[in-house]
Specification:
By secondary structure, the chain is α+β, with helices and mostly antiparallel strands. Helices cover 26% and strands 22% of the residues. It folds into 2 domains: 126 residues, MutM-like, N-terminal (N-terminal domain of MutM-like DNA repair proteins), CATH 3.20.190; 117 residues, Helicase, Ruva Protein, domain 3, CATH 1.10.8.
Length: 264
DNA sequence: AGCTCTGTTATCTG
DNA sequence: ACAGATAACAGAGC
């Protein structure tokens, strides 16, 4: 599930851990999502420390602990974070958990496309600080957007929007929503856009990220009824604007939903 | 039984 | 070298 706003929401599940001493860490390094974790490092770097800060960037999360380490978490396709009271009841898909006196803080991921990694160092890791601006950041302006368009001319718009190095946090449903709101067909090439269309796309990109953060990101509620979001997976779903049937096709390697009578 | 899924990456191809 | 396309990962739901 997790795109920009889902990630922001999930990260808050570990908020109650802030300030409490970590007494125990449970994980299985055989699992793909934890394969870079080394038991001895986890014990020496995390046990006895406490969670200090929580950051998100696109689909990534970073948890800073006292001492000298950060945990980076990516939720992949099916990852989620949970806070559980003690004693812990563990599901078979709980691959990483740390416990304080108050509770257990869980990373759960059935398909294991997500990832938990430990970074040791004084401060926030260098690679985190070098991530590109988020879409809602002031730094993310039309000039930057146009420079991305210049470098990715040959991509269909759908594949373009999914590039995390350009639009951190945008995933499959958000990309479809952005294209629907900007009235552009997903298979159009970036190079085929007029400057007016590029501006439409830029504005919808900002609007969808903002709208998602204000709904999903706050309490996991759905975006407005007027959005494509509510209609796109319904069998026989219709365009909220024209009432005509929605189309579905694989574009840019992902199933894509759009409204042929609304998007050009 | 077979196909799908809101993600990423290694490995092809041109 | 580089941009874009594809397969693979693992499990559950239809």
């Amino acid at each position: 599930m997790p795109e920009l706003a889902e990630v922001a929401f999930h990260s808050k599940a570990w908020l109650p851990a802030i300030g409490d001493v970590i007494e125990e860490v449970l994980f299985n390094a055989d699992k793909r999502c934890c394969k870079s974790l080394v038991a001895e490092r986890i014990q020496s770097d995390l046990v006895g420390e406490s969670l200090e800060e929580l950051h998100t960037h696109g689909k990534r999360m970073l948890f800073k602990f006292s001492g000298q380490c950060c945990l980076s978490v990516h939720l992949g396709m099916t990852g989620s974070l949970h806070c559980s009271s003690l004693p812990l009841s563990r599901s078979k898909f709980d691959h990483f958990t740390f416990c304080t006196k108050e509770g257990g803080f869980i990373f759960r991921d059935p398909r294991q496309f997500g990832k938990v990694e430990l970074f040791v160092g004084e401060e926030i890791p260098e690679w985190w600080r070098l991530l590109p601006p988020e879409v809602l950041d002031l730094m993310f302006n039309f000039e930057l957007f146009e420079s991305y368009c210049e470098r990715r001319k040959r991509r269909p718009l759908k594949a373009f929007l999914l590039l995390q190095e350009c639009f951190p946090g945008v995933g499959n449903w958000m990309a479809d929503e952005i294209l629907w709101q900007s009235r552009l067909k997903p298979n159009r090439l970036v190079s085929a856009l007029s400057s007016e269309e590029r501006l439409q796309l830029f504005n919808s990109l900002k609007a969808v990220c903002r709208g998602a953060m204000d709904t999903v990101g706050v309490d996991y509620s759905d975006p407005p009824e007027s959005w494509l979001f509510r209609h796109r997976w319904k069998p026989g779903g219709n365009c909220p604007q024209t009432g005509d049937p929605l189309a579905r096709e694989t574009i840019g390697g992902r199933t894509t939903c759009w409204s042929p009578s609304w998007q050009a």
